[in-house]
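Quick bug: M18 family aminopeptidase output formatted oddly.
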Amino acid sequence: MSLTRKFADFLDASPTPYHACENLSLLFAAEGFTRLDENTRWQLEPGKKYFFTRGDSSFAAFVVGERPLEETGVRIIGAHTDSPCLKIKPNADRVTKGYHQLGVAVYGGALLAPWFDRDLSIAGRVTYLDGEGALKAALVNFGRAVALIPSLAIHLDRSANEGRAINPQTQMNAILQHAPADARFADILLNELQQSHPEAVEVLDYNLSFYDTQPSATVGLKDELFVGARLDNLASCFLGAEAMLNANTDVTSILICNDHEEIGSNTDLGAQGPMLGELIDRLVSGDAQSRQLTLRRSLMLSVDNAHGVHPNFADKHDDKHGPLLNAGPVVKFDANQSYATGADTAALVRWLARAAEGREAIPLQSFIMRADMRCGSTIGPITSAEIGVRAVDLGIPTFGMHSIRETAGVSDLEQMASLLTRFVSVTDISL
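Here's what came back:
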């Protein structure tokens, strides 16, 4: 199966961070990685491969290297499982003019306009009681179009194409159905849950999101573009997973995919939380100096999508730093360190991308924002500061970041997979 097809299948089956973690877990288990429980003591063996999840929405897989950590350090690939979206409010039911609607809360910096007139479904995690009163949790995916947010006809808003603001509180309540007198989303959700978990008798709470049911696709006369939802940042999670499945067992490497990057990472599941640091503590046997020596020899690739230069808005880019789709992965720079890249870490990535015996060169691009604009944030600087590891920010160039449907280059997906595989395969990355 081609990398693009595998990615499309993964993306379409992962409408929420919970589903992404479940699918990553299934993938790594099938490839011989052992699942670990954070609530137990671990007995880790050199040359063996493991994975675990936290909160069902953050994921980590790692290889315990056969060489000492103080010699090799740790290779870390960091990404995030969450994407901007519309979440369903706790008391979401609204009945207006005979329509049963659900109120939404905007998660992250979402582009709102593309959510109108889409065939929306619902997915997420539900906590419930079974018939014996036990508290349980399960993933839910309606898997079909059950809602929409219709646009207002231009006849009723003649200035709609002149920069109309969107109010998510009043203008983005999703329509579910013509409202019966006793319309309750809790009843609808319980009925859906019981299709796969018949023991459920009451829904206590949920974390649910709307998502677009349109599947991923390749477009363009030569199928050179890949379009789909949540490319930011499930593309990096998937490509990091592809690399880890081919990791060199001589050295220790980690793939960590945190939740909550889109809202600042400052949570127990986010990059500013303790998940990665605690994993490194479990890996390092010895005193504090052993940990410090290990981290001094370590490197993190913070992999998060980059802004490809939009041909209709080319002036939004520095004219010397406008990444093109299908022209290679992007190394991201920021003078104020909103990206973690430094000259030394960028040089290491350029070295990895060079042609060598038995491998072709991987083209690289550079990105920095215009001097009169601020860039976004990533997990790179956060992780670097939290655990004291050198880092570099890079990603594949995309159009429409934070839209309900984003675009990347097919070739860039393949090139990034190759670059990440080299990172966890070479025996020495010291500088």
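Actually, after a second look the formatting is fine. The chain has two domains: 3-83+229-423, 85-212. Closing.
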